[in-house]
Structure formats: C-alpha cells, structure tokens
Write a structure and sequence with these properties.
Shape: globular
Low-confidence stretches: none
Mean pLDDT: 94
Number of helices: 3
CATH architecture: 2-Layer Sandwich
Order of helices and strands: EHEEHHE
Number of domains: 1
Oligomer: single chain
Radius of gyration: 13 Å
Strand order of the largest sheet: 2-3-1-4
Distance between the termini: 20 Å
Structural class: alpha+beta
Largest sheet: 4 strands, antiparallel
CATH topology: Alpha-Beta Plaits
Number of strands: 4
Length: about 100
C-alpha cells in the first residue's frame, strides 16, 4: 500500500470550494482505498488530504483521470501553495 498526507494552503474565502472540488474529483479512482479531506481546525486557510492507495502507480495514474484534472483546475484559483507532504506506508485500517 501507498499513502500520502498533504496540506493545501488556500485563501480563507476559497477553502470550502477547494474541499468541494477535491471531494467531487475523488469519485471512482481505480486503486484508491481511502480519501479523506479535512479542514484544519486551527488554520482557516488550510486543508489536509489523507490518501491510501493500492500502490504508488495507482496514485500516479489517478492524476491523469479527467475527473481529477477537472478538480485540480476548479481548486487552483483558490490555492495559495502547498504545505507539508508526507509519504506513508499504511499497514492497517480499523473501520469506525
């Protein structure tokens, strides 16, 4: 498995648009195990994305999907930069 946790920096006014774009673009991504979008509780200009993929190749392939490309284009005007990014190796999941 392959995992990513990343922070996106947004305009304060555009954060909800970025969240909506990410969630819309994340539907039906082959090889995706989990995709979680979260607003930072302390920073109104930050969004965190946690992803779990079957493989790194599946993640790379997702970036060519029309839905993902459209989501990136929709979010881009509201982004001000990238924050921290961490690659992880998921080992287990507990369903809530």
């Amino acid at each position: 498995m392959y995992g990513l946790i990343g922070q996106l920096r947004t305009t304060e006014a555009g954060r909800s648009e970025v969240v909506a774009a990410l969630l819309e673009g994340a539907r039906d991504m082959p090889g995706n195990v989990a995709y979680l979008v979260a607003e930072d509780a302390e920073d109104p200009a930050a969004v965190w994305v946690t992803e779990v993929w079957e493989s790194e190749a599946a993640h790379r392939a997702s970036l060519d999907l029309p839905s993902v490309r459209a989501a990136i284009a929709r979010a881009r005007p509201h982004l001000t930069g990238m924050g921290m990014r961490v690659v992880t190796r998921p080992v287990a999941s507990l369903d809530a």
